[in-house]
Structures are given as C-alpha cells and as structure tokens.
Design goal:
The protein is an alpha+beta fold. It has three domains: 104 residues, no CATH class; 161 residues, no CATH class; 180 residues, Sandwich (Tick-borne Encephalitis virus Glycoprotein, domain 1), CATH 2.60.98.20. The protein is built from five helices and 30 strands. Strands 5, 6, 9, 10, 22, 23, 24, 25, 26, 27 and 28 form an eleven-stranded antiparallel beta sheet that branches. Strands 12, 17, 18, 19 and 20 form a five-stranded mixed beta sheet that branches. The protein is rod-shaped and about 145 Å long.
C-alpha cells in the first residue's frame, strides 16, 4: 500500500538528512584542523518501481558522502621550519612506526603537515604519524627509482657534526701594470725553485723571525687567504706576485707558517709556482698562463688531515672577472673559499623540492633526506582514516611516488600549513537547508500517521 511506502520514504528522508547533518557537523568541528578536507552530502533517489507508467511507488532518498580530498586549502604562514604544506597535487607519506617501511608498517597519506620533532628527533604530526623520506647519497642526490620500501622516517637530531675541506679558491685582484721591475728580475737572481731565490724563501725567513730576511725575493704583491683542511683546521695560504715583464708576472703560492705542509719547496711552505699572463687590455690571458696555476694543487698537511686538492679560480680568459693588470695600485678586490671548520648541528631547513638539510654552526648545509609525494589518479576516491589520513582504495587508483615538482606532483611549501577547506558560511547555509528538509520529512510521517488513523476509524 502506498501509505506505508510513503511512511518508509519519509523515514529514509530522516535518515538521509541525519547523515547530512553529521557531515556538516564534522566539517564545522574541523574548521581549524590542518589539512582537513570537507565532506559533502550528495542525495540519490531510491526507486522501487521502474517499469510501470501507470502507478507510482515511493522509494525514498539516501545520502552519499562525497569527500573533496583533491581540493586545496589556503596556505598559511608558520614560524616553524618543519611545518609543511603542499602547493599542488600530492600527499605526504606517513607511518605509524618510527622505523623503515616493512611488512608491519601501516602506511597512509596526509596533507596535514604540522610536523615537529619528538623526543627522539623524528618528525611527527599532531596525529602522531611519522613523516617518511628517502635518504640521499653522499652527493646529496635521491635514487632514480622511488620505492615505498626504501622510505625511512626523517630524523633531524641524529645528524653528526662535520667539517669540510676547501677545494676552490676564487681571487679578484689587480696587479699594477706600471710596477717597476725588481732587482731580482733585472739581475736574474729570482728563481722559484730555490729557497734563496724565491718569494716563499723570503716569507719563510720572516716567519722564522729573520729580520731582515737573508733569503728569497720580496714580492711586488701578496694576499693571504684562509682555507680549511678535512679536519676543519684553518690554514693561511699566500698568493705572491712578482712582475717579470710586460703583461707577465711570476706567481708563487705558499702556506704560512711553512711547517703546516710537508709538500713543496722544503722549509718554505711553497705549494705551487707559475707565470700569469695578461692581454693588452688588462684582462687575463689563460692561454699564456702556466697550467700549474689553473690545475688542482695537492696539499699534504701535517697533523693527520687528509691531503687537499685546491683549485684557484683566477678569472675567465679575456674577462676582468678575476685577476687583472691595470695602471692602478696592486690590490685585492675580493676572495672567497668553500669549506668550513668543525661545527655542530644548529637547525634544519626544508626547501620547495622537499630536500631536508642539516644546518651546522660553521655555516655548512648538508642535504640528508628528501620528502617524496604520493599522487593518485583519483584522490577523491581515497579511504578516510583516523588522524586526517587516507589509504588506497579501489576507487583511488594505485600509488605513485614522485619527487616534488615532477610528474604532476606539487611543490613542498616550508614554514606553511594548509588550512581546512571548510567554508563556515556555506556550512551554516547547508545546516539550515538540512534542518528544513528534516522538518518537512517529519511532517510527511505525521501526515501518513493521521491518514492511517483515519483508515483505522473506518472499521468502527
């Protein structure tokens, strides 16, 4: 009988709009939940008779939840370096265990990036999930193929202290083109191969306290540069120049004091010699410059540090971006070296590619891990789980691990958090609509009840 069907239809309406009310209330409750994705109620009819055009049998309605997981929330600034969000598609890979991925791991995916180090240094979000990353090799590069089983929880406190040896020295300086020739040049007594005739021999006498020096030749120009060995030790390297002829200078490189090296001219700390040539416009002439000045120099340190390979960048051929020869006074313009002395971990930084770098007190930054992003063909089909996380379902498609910025994956936005996608005004509007619809369905039930009462009275 259609009255009973109408009663069932009204009851289904109460159930559907009750479910819709639950979705709205959950959205409002998570208004400030980081990375929360709103759920909307989509209503679908329940049809009990589809073949007859002469009769109608009410079926009712059902509420189907639709999760808008692919919708991105507003990225809001944060003061924490480990607060992360994703600008674009993708999810962070998280685990319930602070250990590498194995058969017992419970892997899930989230956009909630409010990560902070726990007591052991592992990055965990507010729901207690560990952020997973891929370890980088010694050169700071990620593996070519990303595999889920290779992921490990990111730890920012177990990074060791480090030092880094200097490998590159860049110098910008001017050598005076009108510099008078030294008596050692005019008298042909200068020779870089002997203590008595070299600029390094002159510096060695000064270092030994022999004033005035009895050996060597005084340079026309010299500049001191600090470099670092593999143990973080600091050494002073001097580049000295002596004008040989027009557009040609003698160069010696030596360590002061001489006892810090075992290589080179004995007792002088000399580690390299050669001649530096210039063009007529004052720019460096690489073709006329000794190859020894341009190639790496092997320096054997005392004190147990590994040998260093120092490369001096003196400028580009035909350009004035390094050593020059103009009429002005000989002077150092600038110098720079890489490497650093021993330092402790003082912080961590994460860039837009998801690379986690350890920051040391000596100014070094070492790439240690990279955060991969997981993408799905249909992210709205993921299964919702506890803690604002999701897992793979038959509707979402398979997992694809990608580095940030590749293959459709978004970029990692450090020091930001993704806000909830809930629109409070829209939720209140839906709340009023659902309330009215619920009330209307109760009226249907009341009306059917009255009609059934009238029908029962017919018997009296």
């Amino acid at each position: 009988m259609s009255l009973f069907a109408s009663l069932a239809s009204g009851v289904s309406g109460l159930g559907a709009f009750s479910s819709a009310l639950g979705m709205i209330s959950d959205n409002i409750a998570n208004l400030n939940t980081v990375g929360y994705k709103e759920t909307r109620a989509k209503f679908s009819t329940l049809v009990t008779e589809t073949r007859s055009t002469a009769t109608f049998s009410p079926g009712g309605v059902q509420a189907i939840p639709q999760s808008l997981i692919s919708r991105q929330g507003l990225l809001q600034s944060s003061t924490s370096a480990t607060d992360l969000s994703i600008d674009g598609a993708g999810f962070f890979v998280v685990s319930t265990r602070g250990e590498p991925v194995n058969q017992d791991s419970e892997i899930s995916f989230t956009r909630a990036g409010s990560f902070t180090p726990n007591a052991d240094g592992f990055l965990k979000n507010t729901a207690g999930f560990f952020l997973m990353g891929v370890p980088l090799d010694s050169s700071g590069n990620a593996p070519t193929n990303l595999v889920l089983t290779e992921l490990q929880p990111i730890n920012v406190s177990n990074l060791t202290s480090t030092a880094e040896a200097t490998t590159n020295v860049a110098i910008r300086a001017n050598l005076q083109s009108s510099q008078p020739l030294s008596a050692a040049i005019t008298g042909a007594t200068y020779t870089a191969a002997t203590v008595a005739g070299s600029m390094s021999g002159y510096a060695a006498d000064i270092a030994a306290g022999v004033i005035p020096p009895v050996n060597g030749v005084q340079p026309d120009f010299q500049t001191n540069i600090q470099v670092f060995d593999a143990l973080g030790g600091i050494h002073t390297v001097t580049l000295a120049a002596l004008r040989q002829a027009d557009n040609l200078w003698n160069i010696e490189v030596y360590v002061d004091p001489p006892g810090e090296v075992t290589s080179g001219l004995a007792g002088t700390g000399q580690i390299n010699t050669g001649q530096l040539a210039f063009n007529g416009d004052g720019t460096i002439d690489i073709t006329g410059t000794s190859a020894s000045l341009l190639n790496p120099i092997t320096v054997n340190w005392t004190g147990g540090a590994s040998a260093s390979n120092l490369t001096f960048d003196l400028g580009s051929n035909g350009l004035s971006d390094g050593m020059t020869q103009f009429a002005g006074n000989s002077t150092i313009i600038s110098s720079s070296v890489d490497g650093a002395t021993f330092g402790n971990v003082v912080g961590v930084s994460i860039d837009k590619e998801g690379v986690v770098s350890a920051l040391f007190s000596n100014g070094l930054a070492k790439r240690v891990s990279q955060i991969p992003l997981s993408t799905f063909q249909n992210p709205d089909g993921l299964t919702r789980r506890q803690g604002n996380t999701y897992t793979v379902s038959d509707q979402s498609g398979t997992l694809n691990l990608k580095l940030a910025g590749f293959g459709g994956a978004g970029f990692v936005a450090p020091s930001t958090l993704e806000a909830s996608t809930v629109d409070l005004a829209a939720e209140f509007t839906s709340l009023i609509t659902v309330q009215r619809a619920f009330s209307a369905n109760t009226k249907v039930i009341i009306t059917v009840d009255e009609m059934l009462s009238e029908l029962n009275n017919v018997k009296r």
